[in-house]
Amino acid sequence: MVLWSGTIEVLRESMFAYAHATNGNLAVGILIVTALARLAMFPLMVRVARAAARHQDRVRAVQPELDAIKARFKNDPVQAAVETRKVFTREGIPMIPLSSLFGGVAPAPVLLALYAAVRQCAAVGGRFLWIADISRPDRLLAVLVGAVSIIAASLAPVPAGQHRSVMMLLPVLITTIVLWKMAAGVGLYWGVSSVVGGVQTLVVARRASLRQGAA
Asked: Can you give the pTM of this predicted structure?
């Protein structure tokens, strides 16, 4: 608990420090600290995304066989699950990629602490660009961040069996609905995170294309 509180305090005070260096603009402090924190975690998140992409590629290679099993045992889900597991075991594909699972969980405490610090700073309020008070919701910001989220989602690969439209619309709906009534300062944090996520997806896709070209 002490470590958790201390982490939030360090992040919060860093936001105030950057705000002080920029004529007391707390929104700028939130943006800078959020960007720095996300950039610090960027290498880890890229490795996690690459591991997930490799797993998806392996699953996609056996997808026709999985679809055949699903059709064959459509009235027997238990046997379908057994046959599916056999395919995964035969191909050496983990049902749940542990590297992606652990890699996704590892940054969670930092992200939660960052979110808590942002909420505390945003509660102080202040003007930023067209936003009169970052402690209050701003609907234009919610729409803009939602647009950024849908762009980031459009860059991500679509897992087998899922539709891109669902993968794109779900994030933007959730983001817009949540931010519609949340402090604009939180929206700024969310927007930066979405931008970093989009860049992460582009980096992973670029490296994958280079690897395929070399092969």
From this structure: 0.70
